Amino acid sequence: MAKRKVSVLILCEDQQHESFVREYVKRVHDVRNRGIRTIASTKGKGSAFQFVMDNFPTEVYALRKRGREHKLIAVVDADNKSVEERMDQLSKSLKAEDTRGDSGI
Amino acid sequence: MITRVYIDNYKCLVNFEYKPEKIQLVYGANGSGKSTFLDVISLLKEYVFNGKATTGLFHKNSITRPQVRNIQVFEMDIRGNGGLYSYRLEIEHDPSKNICRTQLETLTFDGENLFRCVLGDARLYRDNHSEGPEAKFDWGRSGIAALGQRSDNTKLQWFKHRVGKIACVRINPWSMNYAFEDEELTLDRRATNFAAWYASKVGEMPKSIHQLHETLSEIIDGFDQLTVKGDINGIKTFSLLFKSKDSAEYPIRLDELSDGQRCLIVLYTLLHCHMDDDMTLLFDEPDSFVSLPEIQPFLVELQDRVENRTNAQSLLVSHHPELINKFGRDGSVRFVRENTGPTRIKDLGTDPDSGLDDAEQIARGWENG
Hints:
The complex is a heterodimer of chains A (105) and B (369).
Chain A: E1 8-12, H1 15-29, E2 36-40, H2 47-66, E3 71-75, H3 83-98
Parallel strand pairs in A: 1-2, 1-3
Chain B: E1 2-8, E2 16-18, E3 23-28, H1 34-48, H2 54-57, E4 71-80, E5 83-94, E6 99-109, E7 112-118, E8 121-125, E9 131-136, H3 143-146, H4 154-164, E10 166-169, E11 179-180, H5 194-202, H6 206-219, E12 223-230, E13 236-243, E14 249-253, H7 259-274, E15 280-284, H8 292-307, E16 313-317, H9 321-327, E17 332-337, E18 343-346, H10 358-363
Parallel strand pairs in B: 3-16, 3-17, 10-15, 15-16
Antiparallel strand pairs in B: 1-2, 1-4, 4-5, 5-6, 6-7, 7-8, 8-9, 11-13, 12-13, 13-14, 17-18
């Protein structure tokens, strides 16, 4: 069998995020479905954002171990926050992991 | 697409109603009736489209036990052709003689009659629902299957062919034949006749075959194309043509492939050559034999094809965590039986705030109800 090699990982809140971003990646970056792996929350609204936040540090760590040819796309709704606030939350989640000293981030 | 199925007095399905979505995962414990449901859909196709006899399809042991009612009821609603078809079939058993007959077979379109047959005495209706002639049919077979195409029964014929476009597969790679004599238009439930079915698609849809080859070349190292070659005795053999790094070509017969490779070839052939609009694909454990990295790409391709076609539909029966987590609570139903009672339908029963994904909750038996 040809080994499936994932180069783009989509971490997102739901199926709608997944469909939208996957189609974007396929069309703009010429990546086939087999090159994309999706981790979508099956949780309810609200906790779906937390799902992305919880998994983001782990995925960033795994990505950095794999090297630069791999891409991670984290997708969250801004909801009642601004885009900058959401970006800040994601950054803080990395820093929080980093303080544990074992994440390698 | 199939919008409703009602089954009564067939194995564990008693007064059972299911309204499937466009694409949906059917989950349930072992023995909860998932495969029985697919059995019924297959039987209805054999009866209505292929014209098979009741006695060979509806066995007396399929009557729900310990009940003693001898009539089984099957209903199927299909939306398409600009309206809603409602089909009803009542099968009456005589257990002492091990025979059964069609007590009632009816078909309506948006509530108006298209066909009605009671114990072999049928009333035909035209496309405008005006009464047509009376007719006699064998009460052991479907009158709809027996009716030929006429200029004034196109609605009925549409329904019959739509039922023919339901494909229900549980791939058994060990039973797949690599050799055959004649092409076959219908893929059987276990994909036993895959090679003969594939051969019928080659001339019919060359573009789809080309796309299929492209997809398979991404999955199987060295794959070039699928081939069917006949010998002087009329026996045809299904093989895969491979190309080595120095461009030397060599064939490998279907039975020489791994179980997983055979399953993937069937799955992707169904997607490329069988998934058009007004098509229903029912997969019973499509993840069997398929390696973990291959499951999500297949599901993504299937979902794309179903969602891009207005009336295409797919139902998947599976226990695999990859499917449970992909479809989740919103995209799944659960078949449940309590104390060997009849099958009922519930939602997945998982808690969105448990901190665990759906598959993990189910693995622990922590889902509700």
